[in-house]
Amino acid sequence: MQLAIRTRRVLAAMLIGFATPGCATATAPAPVETAVKSGPWGGQHIAMTVAASGTDIEFDCGKATVPGAIETDNNGAFTAAGTFQPERPGPTRPDAPPPRPMRLSGTVKDDSMQVTIVLTDQNEEVGTFSLTFGGAPRLVKCR
Fold first, then answer.
1. What letter does residue 143 receive in the DSSP assignment?
2. How far apart are CA 32 and CA 125, in angstroms?
3. How far apart are CA 54 and CA 65, in angstroms?
4. Which domains does the chain have, with CATH numbers?
5. How would residue 12 be classed by pLDDT, with cut points 50, 70 and 90?
6. Considering only CA atoms, which of 93, 133, 100 is closest in space to residue 117?
7. Burial 104-133, CB ≥16 within 10 A → b, else e
8. In terms of DSSP H, where are the helices of the chain?
């Protein structure tokens, strides 16, 4: 008789544990990170060439690089660090200013990307751009 009562209590405790929210021991799946699609991206005043090894960006009056792949989260959001090199009209001078640290952040969905570039040494925004995968860049070079 004692064994039957204990068995029922154990079964009841197990059923309550399975039915109670938050008591499950399974963990939520980890966020999946994927890289921004490799290849050419273009838009007004910007051209990007994305690769797993790094990204090269050209602006009307500057260029930038981001080392390595640009990883996105489940929502397509990304943030990456790199360097920005301002350009001026005329030939490149030997006393050109040094590259500046920058942050690239934005979102990508299918073949569309929104990106904001901020120079992090003085929190100066270069701009926000819309790009399309395989799209032709529309640059107006300052040279």
1. -
2. 29
3. 7
4. 31-133 (2.40.128)
5. low
6. 100
7. bebebeeeebbbebbbeeeeeebeebebeb
8. 2-19
Query: Which of 39, 46, 51, 40 has its CA nearest to residue 117?
Result: 46
Terminal C-alpha separation, the chain: 94
The helix (H) or strand (E) run that includes residue 100 is strand 100-109
- Burial class from Cβ neighbours inside 10 Å (0-12, 13-18, 19+) for residue 35 reads middle
pLDDT digits (tens, 9 = 90+) for 105-129: 999 999 999 999 999 999 999 999 9
pLDDT tens-digit readout, 20-79: 455 555 565 555 568 999 999 999 999 999 999 999 999 999 999 999 999 999 999 999
Amino acid at 59: F
What token pair was written down for 2?
Answer: 């004692």
Q: Which amino acid is at 109?
A: K
Reading the block at residue 135, the tokens are: 């799209």
- The identity of residue 30, as a single letter, is A
